[in-house]
Design goal:
By secondary structure, the protein is an all-beta fold. Among the domains are: about 1-115, no CATH class; about 280-390, no CATH class. It has a 45-stranded parallel beta sheet that branches. This is Integral membrane protein CcmA involved in cell shape determination.
């Protein structure tokens, strides 16, 4: 026959196994009986009302904590659900076959369950292993093994993997390696080394290591501390990559784009300044500001440079359009058009159009050369049967 146990307010109870349910009142303490392997086992449900303490491992069918704070100096094993109105602190692990729900704070060494729902703060000093985690305030986890994570405020993850979505209203921080399917953050994201399918950030995205992500969309600034690879990159502000940038699709940056080493991709559009060690593209390049490359910029489709821009390093494209009064060094293409007042040290192309007021050091062509009025040529134009090999 099941026998329930009740521990009155302010009392201390030494227990081994409870065959029925356990009810514990405010300011009570639970101790393990001798010979119980420092564990209390409750066959039924356990309910704690007010602030209570368990000084051992604890096992029950279901756990409910009302109004106060429950502190467990050991491990907690629950075969059903954990329901905490205010706060739960567990020195060891929480293992629940159902879900873990808390209105205020849940803190543990590790947690393994199906679902976690916390209104305030969730803190796990080791591993959080769950399918779905939803927290209204803040999450601090050393290692995450999750399917989905949703946080209203701030999430700090040491390392881990999230198979599905990470949604954070404010800030996402991760110091080490993080794998994910998609990240959606309203504010700021700071990662170590990361790999995923999609990132959408309202503010700033920064990594200290490599970033591999198929689709990246950021409203503000992007800073990658290593190499960056993926399909598409869309940034409203400035982008800086400390290594190489390798894309298979389009890139659009509203501000400056700086890539320390090599950039590869399809089409790029840069509103501000573009700086890279070398850039090789299969499509088009539209640059709104200055261009500075060590080895050059090559775009199989073509290159369009905005008016008044200054370019350092060779430009190689199918079609190259130089805006009004821009200054460039060597330009190579199937067709090159220099806008009014542009300056170029050398132009090599099958067809060349030089508009009024341009200054050109050297021109080499195979089919057609057209020049406007008041064009200054520092050396005679040369028509050849075939063009020399282009750089890159």
């Amino acid at each position: 026959m099941q026998q329930d146990v009740r521990v009155e307010r302010g009392n201390s109870a030494t227990l081994g196994r409870v065959e029925g349910n356990l009810k514990v009142e405010k300011n009570a303490t639970i101790e393990a009986a001798d010979g119980s392997n420092r564990q209390v086992t409750v066959a039924g449900s356990a309910r704690f009302r007010g602030d209570c303490t368990i000084n051992c491992d604890f096992e029950c069918r279901s756990l409910k904590v009302e109004k106060g704070t429950l502190r467990v100096a050991g491990n907690l094993l629950v075969h059903g659900d954990v329901d905490v109105e205010n706060a739960l602190y567990v020195d060891g692990s929480i293992a629940a076959e159902g879900g873990v729900a808390g209105g205020g704070i849940i803190s543990a060494g590790s947690i393994k369950c199906r679902v976690v729902r916390v209104g305030g703060t969730l803190k796990v000093s080791d591993t959080l292993d769950a399918e779905s985690v939803k927290v209204g305030g803040k999450v601090i986890v050393q290692k995450a093994m999750l399917v989905d994570l949703s946080v209203g405020g701030q999430a700090e993850i040491g390392s881990g993997a999230v198979q599905g979505q990470i949604r954070v209203g404010g800030t996402l921080l991760s110091k080490s390696e993080l794998e994910f399917d998609s990240i959606t953050v309203g504010g700021r994201v700071e990662l170590g080394t990361a790999k995923g399918r999609g990132i959408n950030v309202g503010g700033r995205l920064a990594t200290t290591g490599d970033l591999a992500c198929e689709k990246i969309k950021v409203g503000g600034i992007v800073e990658v501390g290593g190499n960056c690879s993926g399909a598409t990159l869309e940034v409203g502000g400035e982008t800086r990559v400390a290594g190489s940038l390798a894309l298979t699709g389009k890139l659009g940056v509203g501000g400056d784009l700086q890539v320390k080493d090599t950039m590869t991709g399809a089409d790029i559009g840069v509103g501000g300044r573009f700086k890279a060690g070398k850039a090789i593209l299969t499509g088009w390049a539209w640059i709104g500001g200055q261009v500075e490359t060590g080895a050059g910029l090559k775009a199989g489709g073509g290159i369009k440079i905005a008016s008044h821009a200054e370019c350092k390093g060779p430009l190689v494209g199918g079609m190259v359009e130089l805006g009004k009064r821009c200054k460039v060094q060597d330009v190579y293409g199937s067709k090159v058009v220099a806008g009014k007042g542009a300056e170029a040290e050398k132009i090599v192309a099958d067809e060349i159009e030089i508009h009024d007021g341009c200054t050109v050091g050297q021109t080499t062509y195979t089919r057609r050369l057209e020049t406007g009025r008041n064009v200054t040529s520092k050396s005679a134009s040369e028509k050849v049967a075939s063009l020399p090999a282009f750089p890159l």
